[in-house]
Structure formats: structure tokens, C-alpha cells
Amino acid sequence: MKQCSDIDGTVRNNPLLAVYNHIFSGSPLRRPRGSTRAALPRQEVGDVIPAAFDYLRAHTTDEALAHLQQHGAEARVLAGGQSLIPAMRFRLARPAVLVDINGVGELNYVRMSDGVLAVGAIARDSDIERAPWIGDRRWSLFYDVSRVVADPVVRQMGTVVGSLCHNDPSGDWTTVALASRATVVVRGKSGTRRVPIDEFLVDSFATAVGDGEMALGAEFPIPDDRTAGSYQKVERKVGDFATAAAAVQVSLNADGTIRSAGVALSAAGACAVRVDAAEQLLAGQKPSADLLRAASDAAWHRSAPQADLRGSVEFKKHLAGVLVARGLRQAFSRLGVQA
Amino acid sequence: MKIHVTVNGVAYDRDVEPRTLLAYFLREECRLTGTHVGCDTSSCGCCVVVLDGTRAVKSCTMFAAQADGHEILTVEGLAEGGKLHALQQGFWDQHGLQCGYCTPGMLLTAYALLKHQPNPSEADIREGLSGNLCRCTGYLNIVKAVQQAAATLGQPAGATK
Amino acid sequence: MSIQAKPLHSVGVRMKRKEDPRFIQGKGNYVDDLSFPGMLYLSLVRSTYPHAEIKSIDISEAMKVPGVKAVITGKDLEAAGLGWLPTFHGFDKQMVLAIGKVLFQYQEVAAVFAETRAAAVDGAEAVQVDYAPLPVVADPFTSKTDKVLLRPDRESKTNHIFHWEVGDKDGTARAMASSPKRIKQRLWFQRCHPAPLEPCGCVAYFDTMGRLQFHVTSQAPHVYRTALSLVTGIPEDKIHVISPDLGGGFGNKVPVYPGYVCAIVGALKIGRPVKWIETRTENLTSTGFARDYHMDVEIGATADGKVTALHVATTADHGAFDAAADPTKYPAGIFGIVTGSYAFPVAHAEVDAYFTNKAPGGIAYRCSFRVTEASYAIERGMDILADELGMDAVELRKKNFIPKDQFPYPSALGFTYDSGDYHKTLDVALETIGYSALLKEQAEKRARGELMGIGFSTFTEAVGAGPSKHFDILGIKMFDSAEIRIHPTGAGIVRTGAKSQGQGHETTWAQVVAEELGLDPQTIMVEEGDTDTAPYGLGTYASRSTPVAGAAIVMAARRIREKARKIAAHLLEVGEADVEWTDYKFQVKGVPSKTVTMKEVAFAAYTNMAQIEPGLEATYYYDPPNMTYPNGAYVSVVDVDRETGETKVRRFVAIDDCGVVINPMIVEGQVHGGLTEGFAMAFIQEIQYDAEGNNLNTNFTDYLVPTSLETPHWETGNTVTPSPHHPMGAKGVGESPNVGSPAAFVNAVIDALSPLGVRHIDMPLSRDKVWRAIRDAEAKKAKQA
Amino acid sequence: MNLQYTGEEKIPASLDKVWAFVTDPQKVGRCFPDVVDVAVQDATHFEAIVKVGVGPVRGKFKMKVELVPADSKRRIDMKMSGGGFGSTVDLTSGADIVDAGDGTTLLKWRGQAEARGPVAAVGGRVLDAQAEKLIAQAFGNVRQQLTA
User: Fold this and answer.
1) D90 CB contacts (<8 Å, ≥6 apart)?
2) Are residues C518 and C605 in the same domain?
3) Are C702 and D121 in contact (CB < 8 Å)?
4) Which of A158, A213, C140, C561 to pair with C346, CA 20 to 30 A apart?
């Protein structure tokens, strides 16, 4: 056969045979020579092992901040690590120093106090998912989102505050934080400050947390008992970032009119976006089909997504409208109101 | 750096590079090769182990250094006194595995799931295992396996076979 | 002597798997679990460019990285006569490490050997390659123009790899022209990847005797041994290939990959064991892909729906090297099965393959060599024809099925279908799913404007390659083999040239031997994957284990039975002619009280064999007279969300006919898995390249594997039409669900959208595509109105 | 992946002054945001190292740059190739230089970025932010430095 005779050809005078016949003669390994030209960007490599770094474990917030201030931009905080570690495995992220805060007990809390739900920097997504109060209607937005962030295993390590700090354009918690009007507690050299989520989310993967600073926790106002929400996410499969997602939370007055509404979109811009127009047109109104349609249109207009493998721009814009309408409908029905 | 990790009740004191992922620590330092690595992106769950008794974690997305001072349960630690764990028995009885590569991760994710949800419905199980990929079984028999295990574990002590 | 109390019946029993105890306890033995003293790790430098000239490779920085022992480039391998590696297709070869230029993104460019995994990666990162980008050919239609010649190394200066055709060209054209009804549709079966959860990998070292000990993820260990000997020149007796437990294969572990050759060269030159384990990214971007067939399907029919002719013209994208692991005489595999389950009087199929700047492959992904593409083409085609005729898809199929009394049936494209009862299989499926009730529900839903679809696939595939007169790989005929040894106590061992990747051979082969010899399957050990001990075989893929290796086991067992008969006659003190094998033991004809069991005979074979040759073992090499033709009837019910384009697969019934079933539990498991992979291809799975040749699906965040949450709850069943030529009447089944299901899913979605006038959408049926189709159709309707 | 950006800068300087500036590798190189180092090879070629920092992605991006001035003095093209964190990015940008008449000059620019490797596959959104920043701020800085 043609191809076999080809191979026979290589067999007959195969220099490797010589090497082979003397493999135990200790013949030195010939090291290939290479030119020494100006360095170009490093090439694609197969394996996925992070570049070397120094690991510092903090036991207190003070200790963590000391490390961060000492190393500045070279340092990264390691909380859940569910976004950071994969990025490091591909060597997209190559911090010189990792400050592990998983041992900082004072940051491991999920508690209600002073009218807010306070979530510490190392509280896991699953701590919310399994919180005793999560079934309460007023927390329905949180109930929904806590079941669709990443996947069930990643949620046992991933943190709420970490997601906010990662600020992925297609993130879930950032969107929920906007709709529920959260505040992030940031501590730095100049002490502790409370940053409203709208100011906290600066740009894709960029937040108000500066070098040498860290987010200690997030605070979500405790909704009253005439409040309900909904998180509507379209994803290609479990564990995927949102193709599009909408977070809504509405509070009703005693007369059934809408006291306030939070409406936000994921995968609709550089980072999660608030649909101000929708929030405004909902406030003070009675839930109705027309109202939902108007809010849906506002979402469509507000959405400025990027095309990617998850979907085209027009599809994502379309979904933004659809999901806001669905979210509002579900939130209202959770409040016993048909719209 | 020096770390002290308890794996399946056995203490391991080792000196590791900070960048050593827990999965490779278990496989190469502890020689516990039941924990597998199937992807680079924390997607497949072949590497799932249980941290401190109740949390299922993807050991390819955690550094060995983070396990310092903690307890890890791997598939090698599931059977006790030569008796298979109810989940292992369930996977065997219900044909819940084929190539076996995802099985350790599935077992440990299910182990943590049953700690939080002792009587899961098919929907609960499908949701609870959705962080673990299987390419062979189509999941149906894995669901049955977990249901069998839940039933076994639910029985009063001694009633289990 | 004790007579076995337990029932001896083994085949057809839902026996629990003998291999499972080790897997559920984390005691499996996969390649990456191996570790040897002094073992080095190999990491490959890969191309960032899809097509570029390599101006220089600078390894000086890499050599300075602590722990790096050596760096090897294409030039070094070329000097060692190992620059190129023959593909299993045989008519092409591929670069081991890039020489002169790279032809696809992520192509292997340099090999770095180091003391640890991390050092190997650090070293690979430090290798500097200077590229001069060349124009990229990212699809076969651009390739066709030959404006950019991709493979100047080849004799023929064109990107066209081959033209293959089968059938009656003129006759088909005439019949088509005179057909009152005709449909024509371009169908693209997108590029997919098998993506077994265990990536490919190997450990290579040379032992003190100078033998290459090669542990590798291989579905065909013997072929590896021969190919490696031919390529490296190492005498075949000095190569020991061991394929341990495989974490899935699905065709991905059939070809020989550059990483393997690099590991061997490294082990040879450095004199230490070398481990290479592919990452998921490497697996998806550089090892054997599947499909990527653009098929123009044309069907002719009479006005009342009798098919008259089939023509399929395919443009195939084979990537940078023709590494399709197809039998030598079948460059397009068994695509000729494209007439499916239907009695086409005449047909013509052609395939033209082209090089592109994409990863090589074209392997049989859970598929008997392009049978999946063929089944999809004909099953989609029949639905489009039904739509054209305004005929029910079931009625059209039944009208054109090959009638059961016409088997063995010679197909228009040259296959001889062994057996089948297509009407019966489909009727069972309709019964199970409750077709009439569904039609009623669908009518109501449509009246309300809801999108509900019912989709069918009544496929036939050809598996078990194959008869030596037709099938070979690299010239080696596609037989398979078995060796059985029965020990004095009646326990035994069976070895075959097949290689389980999760199919459960350790259980089913024991059942087959036990059935044939009346022994206890629990005491029959099965060993595969070790070329020092197993008889030569072509391995496990293309659903060939049961049809070929399984048959070899039966024949070897029967040889043992004949030898045993002599011993039985001696024990029963009668002539051999007076001994018959009945109810799993030997009995003196007409004297039910005078029997000996195989266990007793086995003991005698070593203790009391008189003048008969001692021992009780046999080997058989089985050359199948024909392939087997499993078939199935699949029905899928879907609901499509108008607003989001989301498809919910509400129900899926799969009725398979794979002849006699050895272990129903295992067959069900195979079907569940295959359906899930079919589901993935239909809805979410694709390896895409952009116009610049960048691979866009390089890991599991974008190459999507469905989870337990997306995967439907499968309903399975079967009918049994034995294969007349297989010694047990069995057929292959591992791939049927993967071959048959994609069309069932797509047909269901298109059926749901048909009221809107949607006729076809190419896979994967993403929400975006489905929503777009709905929107465009509605816009068109609005325009017309 | 392939990304495109456009923009315009109105510069309070004469066309000749602008032309002299944008054809000087040393000056143009210094206009890249977060530039760490500029190594000029010849009149039309230089290498620039810029700091990149978006969320977890922090590192140095090395760009090989070629300036292609049009004889018309009305257009300058810039070809940049380089990268970091395991990927390469090819940026091509061109600017039409238009005399606005009122002593100011318009830089109408168009840029296109193409990424390869993990960034394209894994961190596409990260890269997009960077490429746009790189191009847009570069031209913005041209205006600033000519204004100052």
C-alpha cells in the first residue's frame, strides 16, 4: 500500500534507530540551538498552571489591609477564587502576591441588623442559598438569584462580595445589587466608607476599590413585607454567564400602587446597568399590562450588550425587554397582583 | 510553604509551592488519584472533594495552601470498614457510571447534597448535580443512584444492608 | 464433584458491572494516575496563529527556566526522521511539531520537558516564536478556490483532498428529473468534538531491556504499536503499548497525536520517563474533531410519496491534515448508508474534502465513520419531503420503509442490510409515546398559537467494520480477536483486541463466555488493552466491539467447547459422537442422568485428560462476513418559547433494535449516553472558527456539555431482530442513539415552527437562531398579509 | 474575535504641527496610555510596553508598532502587534488628518483589534476594554500633548 511503503521508506534509514541502538551508551542529549532575537509576546501553552506568586494568609482585616497596602497593585485578594483562580490558570491574571482572606473570621457573616442584610467578604453564595429566611417572599429576588449563580458546587466556594468586586459585565450579583440598592463597605488607608452600588461599579471588571483597599462586605436594605422580586436569567447551560438577565424588586403601597421599583440588567453593557426609566415610570402606578410593556421597552432601550457566542446584540436587547416584563409579572404575582 | 492537611482522616504535612492546586496536591503529594482533573475552567466537577465535612468544592479551583488546617474527604475515604457508602452502592446498583472518570466528583457532590437535603426529589438531584458533567450516562441512572442512597441513608440505623 | 446450583443463563441478564467496584472507590487506573521514578513532564508550545510562517524559534530563555531539561522543535524531529506522522487515513501525514509554518491555531510548535508540571509550563511560556502571518482559509468553500495553497508539501498542488462517489450518477439524475415531487436542502452538520472527560495523554519510558513501555489513552492499542514501529523504526517486539482505564473515548482516542511522539522522543533522548497529559483546551483545539459536513440533499418522489431517487453532494472540511481515521477504501467512511431505512430504487452520493486552517480530524465521534452525518441527512430530508408533500412524517416513512421480508436487502449504494423490522420498531415507538393523543394536543396548541413539535428519526446504521475484503486501517484488515483460557477450577480469563472506554466489556464479555460454556460469569476475568497479552485486534470504535470482538469471543468459546466435548466423552466413557451440549452441560445423548459440567471438564483437562492434549484454551480471529445494521425509531416532543427561542424537550422515546442483547442494563446506559450527546449536538455543541481562523470554543465554558438539569428524562425500549450472520445474533448499539437522535430533535423543532413557514435551521439550535427564525418568519408572513 | 472602534479628536494646532507629531515614533509612543517604555528602532518602527490592568487581568503588554505615513500628509496608519498574558493582539488604526480651517486640525480615527489565544477565548470582554482604551486614549493623548 502506498502509505505503508512511504512509512517503510522512513524506516529503512531512520536516524532514530542509531539513537535507539545506543540509548544506554549515555550519549549526551543534543540541545537544539535557537537564535536570540528580541522577545515577542509569549506563545500559547497547553498546560494551565498559574504563574508563581507569593501567598499571604490574613487572619484579621487589619492584617489583610497591611498586606494589600504593602504590595499595592501587585496584590490580589483571594476570597472564593472562583473567577480569579481560573484566570490565573490561564495566566491571564498573574498577581505577584495573593492575600488569602478565607481565614478572616470577622468577615464570615450573613446577618440582619440596622435595617440591612449584611454579607461579609467571605460569606459564600451557598450561605445565601441556604439561609433560613431565603423562602420569605420579601427575599424572592435573592431566592431566585442564589439558585442560578454559576453552578451549585462553585456556589459553595464563591462569594457574593467577590462577585461584586469582580464586576463581570454578565454577572448576577452585581445586577441584583443594583435592583436592591445595595451598598458596599470598602476599607482603605483613609478608613472605611460605604459606597452605593451605582458608584461602586465603575467599568468592566473595575470597581471603586482601589489598590491597597478591600471590600469588607455588602449591605442590602431589608425589604418590607409588601416587597417581592424576581431574577430572570437566560443562560446556555448551568454554570454559564448570562446571555441576558434581569433583576427586579418592587414594593407596593397599601393602596396597591407601586411605592418603589428596582430594575437592573446583566449582559447589557460594560457592567450591570440600572434601568432608571423603568424604575421611574413604575413608581406611583398601579401594576398593569401597559405598564409592564412600557418598562419592557425601557429595558430594551437601555440595553447596550456586546455580541458574543451567547447571542447577537439584537437578541440580547430583545431578551432584556422580555426578561424585565417576566420578572415584573412574577414579582407582582408573588404579591398577589396580576398585571 | 508548609501545610498541614487532613485527608480522609490522615494527616499530611507537606511543603508545597503556593501555586499548587489542591487537586494536584491530592493526586501527586497524597497519591490519592481518585480525584480527577477534566477541565481548566472549573466546569466539569471531576475534581470535587468535600471540605470540612459539608462543603463540596472543586479542588482544581482551590490552592492546596487554602486547605491548610482543614479536613478533606475524597472518594477514597467514602467507604468505611470495607463497607461501601450508600452512594457508592447506589451508583453500582443503578449503573450510575460507565467510564468512571466523573464518578468520584459525582459521589462527593451528592454526598454534600444529601447532608443538606436528605430527601431530594429528582428535580433537586438534577439541580444539585448540575455542577458536575458526565459524558457517558445521560444522568438518568445517576439520579436513580442518589435516590437509592437517600432512601438507604434515610432508614433507621442497622436497617441498611 | 459439585454441580453449580445457580442458574447458568448469562446472556440477557442485567448483571451488575464487574469493573464498578474499583471506579466507585477511586481505584480506577487512568494514564494520569501513573507515576514513575524520575518522570518528566511534557508541555507543548502551540501556535497562536492559524496560518503563519515560522521565522524563528528562540528556546534560550526556556532553557534557563529552573527544572527545564530539554526543548525540542520540528527541525530536531525532522533531523531524526520524525518530522511527519502518517494519519490513520493513510493517504496523508501530519507534522509532529511545526516545520517551516503552522497550519492551524494551537498547532504543536515545540516540546518542553521539565522536572515538574509547573516548570514545563513555565518553560513553554518562555519559548519565543516569531511568526509571519499568512492568509487564512477558514472554510472549505474558500479552500475550493485554491487561491491560497495550504499544503505545498503535497504532490498535487490543490487544497482538494479527494472526490469520492458511490451509486448510479446518471440513473439518479434521470430518476430525479422525472420525479413529480422533489426537494433540495443544504444541511450543515457542524464541527463537533467528542470531548471525553478524560483528555488524551501518555507516559513513555524505555525499560532496562530497551523496550518502549508506552501507557497511552488508546482505543486501538495494537494499531498504535504497529504504527509506532513503522514511524519510529523501533522493532515491534520492543514496543509495549498499555491502554489502561479510559475516561471515555467516543472516537477521540483513535488517532495517534503529536504529543505521543514527542513524549517517546523525549524519553529516548533524555533517558527518563516522560508524561504528557493534554489539557481540556488542547483536547478541544488540536485533537480529532468530528463532522463538519456541508450536505446538499436532494430527494425525488411520486406525488403520493413513494421515493424515487436520492442525491447527496457533500463538501467536507477536513482541517489542516487529512487525519480522518477512516478505512483506506472509504475516505468518506460509511456515508453510503445515506439511503437509510428506505427503499430507494436509485441513489448517488458524493463527497469532496478540502484542507482548511483548522485542526485536523474528521474522526468517528460515537459514530461508525460518517454514519451520523448520513443519518442526519436522510432523516431531515424525509421530513422536508413530508412537508413538501403535505404528508404526515410517519406515513411517509412507513410508505418507504424496506419491508421486513426483503432482508437481506441490497441497498442502492451497495450495502447488504442484514435484518430489520422497521414498521414494528416504529409502531412500538408510536405506542409508547402515544402519538395520536399528541397530535390532538398539538392541534389544540397550534390553534392557540403555541409552538409544539413532534419529531421522528427512523434510522438504520451500518456498524461492525468490517469484512476484510472491504475494510482496513493503514492496510491492516479490520478483523478482531479473542483468546480464552479456562483454568482447572472452571474460572477463566478472556482477552480481546477490543478496548473498553466505559462500555463494560469486563462484564459483557464474561457473560458471553459464561453463556457459551456454562460457567459463572463472576469467575471469568476480562483483560484488554495490553499488547503483550491480548491477541491482535483493531480496537473499539465504530460500534465494532460486539459485532467483531464479541463474535470472536463466541467462536473461541465454541472451539473450547469442541475440545471439552472430547474430554467429556472420556469422562462419560462414551464416544464423542454420543455426547451432546445441552442445558449448559455435556450429556450422553438420550441419557439425562449422565452429564458432566464444564467445570468438571475443566478440572479434568488438567488432571485427567487421558490421551487428549492437556489444557483448555482457544484463540479466534474473526473476520466478519458483513456489517450489522442496527436500527431505531426515535420520537421527540418539544415546546418552543416564542419569546426566548428556548426549546424544552418534554419527552423523548428511543426504541432501538440491536438484535440479541447481552446485558440490557448496559445497553440502556449506552442509549442514555448517546442520546445525551445527540441532544448536545442538536442544541448547544459546536466548534466554531471565526473568519480569521480563531477557534472560538476552546474550553468547557464555550464548548458546552449539557448538565443533569438540561438533559431530558430519557424513555427507552427495544425490539429484537437478530443479525443472521453474527454468531449470537447481536448488533452494535453504542452509537445508535448518537447517530439517530440529532434528526429527531431538529425535526421536532422544525415541526413546531412549521406553522410559521420555517423549513430548516442548522444545528446547534441555539435560542438566538430559533428566535431569529421565528421573527423572520413572522415578518415574512406580515409582509405577505 | 474582531473588534472595531472609531472616534474623532479636534486639535488646536496646525496640520503641519500635527503631522510632525504623529510621524514621530518617540512622541506617538508616549501617547499610549500607561506606557512604561518606548524603544525606537527607526523612523517608522518602535516597541512600546504598556501596563494593562483590568480586574484580575494585570500585566505588561508589549506592542511592536509600525507607522505608515501617507505621502499626501493627510493620513497616517499604525500597525501594532503584540500582546501579553498568553495572547496576541493585532491592532490596526488609521487616522485621516483634516485641516478644519480655523487653525485646528481634525483627527478622524478608526481602529480595529484582533485577538488570538486565551484572551480572545476566555477574556474577550477584558481585551475589548483594553484595545478600545489603548486606541481611544492614544489619540486623546495626541490632542492633549499638542494642546499643552
Assistant:
1) D79, D80, D81, D113, D114, D116
2) yes
3) yes
4) C140
Write the DSSP symbol of residue A133: T
pLDDT along chain B (161 residues), means of 10: 97 97 97 96 97 98 98 97 96 98 98 97 98 98 98 72 40
Position A9 confidence tier, pLDDT thresholds 50, 70, 90: very low
- What is the pTM assigned to this prediction? 0.93
Let me know whether B72 and B123 are in one domain. Answer: no
Instruction: Check which CATH number belongs to the domain holding C543 and give it.
Output: 3.30.365.10
Q: C643 φ, ψ to 5°?
A: -75, -35
If asked whether residues C368 and C504 sit together in one domain, one would say no
Q: Exposure of C84 by Cβ count < 10 A (0-12 exposed, 13-18 middle, 19+ buried)?
A: buried
d(CA C779, CA C757): 11
* Other beta carbons less than 10 A from residue C236's beta carbon: 12
Q: Among residues B14, B18, B35, which one has the least CA distance to residue B26?
A: B35
Tell me whether residue C219 is one of the annotated catalytic residues: yes
Q: What would the grid cell of residue C166 be?
A: 458511490
In a domain, C514, yes or no: yes
Q: Does D68 touch chain C (CB under 8 A)?
A: no
Q: How many domains does one find in chain A?
A: 2
Asked about C367 being catalytic, the answer comes back as: yes
Residue C335 gets which letter from DSSP?
Answer: G
Catalytic residue among C46, C191, C291, C366: C366
Q: How far is CA C349 from CA C182, C313, C331, C341, C413, in A?
A: 17, 6, 13, 16, 8
Please report where in the chains the cell 443479525 appears, as a residue. Answer: C723
Is D2 close to C690, i.e. CB distance below 8 A?
A: yes
The question of whether C262 is a catalytic residue gets the answer no
Q: Which residue of D3, D46, D57, D114 to mutate against A (max A Cβ within 10 Å)?
A: D57
What does the alpha-carbon distance between residue A292 and residue A321 come to, in Å, rounded to a whole number?
Answer: 10
Task: Please name the residues between 189 and 248 in chain A that touch chain C, using a CB distance below 8 Å.
Answer: 234, 236-240, 243
What's the grid cell of residue C683? 442544541
Q: Looking at the structure, tell me whether residues B60 and B96 fall in a common domain.
A: no
Do A66 and A182 have their domain in common? no
Report the CATH number that the domain containing residue D106 is assigned in CATH: 3.30.530.20
D119/A contact by beta carbon, under 8 A: yes
DSSP B52: T
B74 φ/ψ angles, rounded to the nearest 5 degrees: -115, 175
In degrees and rounded to multiples of 5, residue C75 shows phi and psi of -60, -45
Residues C733-753, mean pLDDT to the nearest whole number: 97
Note whether A207 and A317 are same-domain residues: yes
Three-state SS for A132? coil
Number of structural domains in chain B: 2
Range of the domain at A80: 54-100
Question: Is there a single domain that holds both residue A125 and residue A85?
Answer: no
Same domain, B12 and B68: yes
Is residue A201 located within the same domain as residue A294? yes
End position of a domain, from candidates A100, A120, A136: A100
Cα gap C671→C713, rounded to integer Å: 12
pLDDT tens per residue, range B84-101: 999 999 999 999 999 999
Chain-chain contact of A205 with D55 (C-beta, under 8 angstroms): yes
Q: Can you say how many angstroms the Cα of residue C30 is from the centroid of all Cα atoms in its chain?
A: 20
Structural domain contains residue B161: no
Domain range for B114: 86-154
- Domain around C662: 290-465+626-784
Domain that holds residue D32: 2-147
Chain B contacts in chain A segment 227-256 (CB below 8 A): 238-239
The predicted-structure confidence for C199-250, as pLDDT tens digits, reads as follows 999 999 999 999 999 999 999 999 999 999 988 889 999 999 999 999 999 9
Q: How many domains would you assign to chain C? A: 3
How far does A292 lie from chain C, in Å, by closest CA? 15
Whether residue C357 lies within 8 A of chain D, CB to CB, comes out as no
DSSP C355-367: --SS--B---TTS
Predicted ipTM of the assembly: 0.93
